[in-house]
Every structure is written in C-alpha cells, then in structure tokens.
Amino acid sequence: MIKKRARNNNGENESDGDLGIHVIVPWAEDPDHEEGIGGYKGNGKRKKKKVRNKFIALLVLAAIVAVVCFFFDDLKRLVFPSSETENVEYIAQKDPTLGIEMVYVEGGTFMMGDEDDHEAGSDKLPHRVSLDSYYIGKYEVTVGLWKTVMGYVPEACSSLDRYPVSGISWEEAQDFVNELNVMTGKNYRLPTEAEWEYAARGGNKSRGCKYAGSHSAAKVAWYGEDNYKKYVGTKQPNELGIYDMSGNVEEWCHDWYDSDYYNRSPLRNPQGPSSGRNKVCRGGYSNGDVEKCEVSYREYYDPSSTGYFRGLRLAL
C-alpha cells in the first residue's frame, strides 16, 4: 500500500501530498522474518517447523503402512475368518457345542503303500489312489468327548478328558459315531483306510515323510513307552496340522481288511471290500514298536475285539 505526503514551507508533512512515499510490507511486523539470498522469507521459523512436523507425520504413516502390510494375512484371518484366507493346514471347522475340530483335506492323488519297502507283502504294494476332499479330526477322539456322547468311560481307559479314548472295539466306535450324529445332526464317520493314509502323509502338502509329519518318529509320535497313552496334541503336527496320526493309539478305519487290497482296489475313493472278517486299524500306539508308526503300516482285528491301545479319529 502506497501513501503520498506533502511538505509545507516549514518542511512539515501535510496529508495527501505528492512528495513523500511510504511502502508498507506485509511482514514488516513479523518477528520471525528472515532475509535470504532469494529475498524475503516470511514466517521462516514457523514454516520450517511445519515442514518438520509434516515429515514426522509421513514417517509415522509409512511405519503404520509397513506394519499392516507385514501382518496383512494375520489381520485378514482375524477380521475375515473364512477358509479362503487361511492356509490349508489351518482350515478347520469347530463344532460350537462339543468343540470337535475337523481339518480340511483337499482331494488329490497319491501313492498308497510303501514303495521303498522291498520286503513288503502284497498288502503294502504301492497303489495309486485319488480322493475327493473331506474333513478329518485334528485330534484323536478324547475321553472327554466320548464321555459326553456315550455317558461312560471304557474300562481300559484313563478317566482324564484329554487322553485319547482307548480299549474300544470297532463296533463300539461305530456306536459312538451314530450317537454323535444324533446329537449334532451331522454325518460324522470313520475315515476310509485311503483317507486315513492320505491325511497322515500330509495330503497335497506332503513332504514324503516316513511318519506323520517327520522322518523322526520321536518328533511326532508316542511309541515304545512303558507307562501309558499321552495327552492328545502334545507332539508336533503333520503338514496339515493334524496330531498323533503316528503313535499314541491305533485308530479304527471304516474298511474291511483285504490282504490284496492294493492290487484290486479302485483308483478313486476306495472303501475296501464290502465284507470280511477283520477291520483295519492304522497309526501305531504308544506301547508299540516304531515301525508300527509308519504311515503305510497296516493292522487288522476282529470288529468286536477290544484292545488296550485302540481308539478312533473322526471323518466328515
């Protein structure tokens, strides 16, 4: 803004004259004004402080974005707990009343049997099998679950809820499944022998381990113990997150036993012969030899017989 002031004969200023010029600049009264090479820098200190604050804010924002990106999958599973956002070993459905956890096993094709065992009989010869997808129990059926469904604890079994139920026949295992389905309205069942072995091998995530999840039996199996069965889920799980498929207790399967099963069974979804004398058991047990913990090992018993180390695992 420019104002002109006139002077009279005495040299005094008069208003509205045309001899003097005063220039009023906008930063004239700014205590933070600095003069630099390029001219005046209004509010210099304040501008520097604002720039510094913006830079700090950007750094904080970048750090937050980095953390979110790093934990994106975990956050996604927390906010959107659907099977599509989870790795297959964690895909499970849990019964809201009984707490039964079933692990999803994606269908696929595998070599059933033991192709590395040159002394194996015909009941262990390798045989290519394809299976549709299914669910299998994350743990062996426990004493607690059996007691809830059946109302009693088997005589040869511990009364501790987290122990695997044992000392049961195939017929008793089937009775349990039937009662469970009445209670839940679902279609639980015993796994077929092929389903059991495919899940024990780790399904389509298999690393080709000798035992269920490891080449070291001690990491995944209770075996050769003199005392008793162990709590379920206390060893390492296999590739699908399933526990105790090697050791602890033997597990009844749906199938009738057939010594020539691997030579004559169908390629897709085999269920064993339609009749027979014995039912298949799989997985070895905590008082048995380590060889019985191998994923290809087969046992068979009369369906009405009980065994101190015989239990079961559910399929769906």
Descriptive account of the structure:
The strands form five sheets. A four-stranded mixed β-sheet has the order 13-12-11-14, with helices on one face. A three-stranded antiparallel β-sheet has the order 2-1-3, with no helix packed on it. The chain is of the alpha+beta class and 316 residues long. Strand 4 and strand 5 form a beta hairpin. Helices cover 23% and strands 18% of the residues.
SSE blueprint and pairings:
Elements: E1 2-7, E2 13-14, E3 20-23, E4 34-36, E5 39-41, H1 44-70, H2 72-79, E6 92-94, E7 101-105, E8 108-112, E9 127-131, E10 134-137, H3 143-150, H4 170-184, H5 193-200, H6 217-220, E11 250-256, H7 261-264, E12 279-282, E13 298-301, E14 310-312
Parallel strand pairs: 11-14
Antiparallel strand pairs: 1-2, 1-3, 4-5, 6-7, 7-10, 8-9, 11-12, 12-13
Write a brief structural summary.
By secondary structure, this protein is of the alpha+beta class.
Mean pLDDT reading: 79
Q: Total helix count?
A: 7
Q: Roughly what fraction of the amino acids lie in strands?
A: 15-25%
Provide the structure class.
alpha+beta
Total number of strands: 14
Low-pLDDT runs of 5+ residues are 1-10, 12-41, 71-90
Q: What would the principal axes of the Cα set say about the shape?
A: elongated
What can be said about the biggest beta sheet? Answer: 4 strands, mixed
Radius of gyration: 38 Å
The first-to-last residue Cα distance is 88 Å
Helix content: 10-25%
Which strand order do you get reading across the main beta sheet? 13-12-11-14
Instruction: Spell the H/E element sequence.
Output: EEEEEHHEEEEEHHHHEHEEE
